[in-house]
Amino acid sequence: MTRAVLSLGANLGDRARALRTAVQALRDDGLTARSTLYETPPWGPVEQPPYLNAVVFVRGDRDAAGWLARAQELEEAAGRTREVRWGARTLDVDVVTVTVDDGTPVRSDDPALTLPHPRAHERAFVLVPWLSLDPTAVLPGHGRVADLVAALPPDDVAAVTPWEHLH
Question: Is the pTM of this model over 0.70?
Answer without folding.
Answer: yes
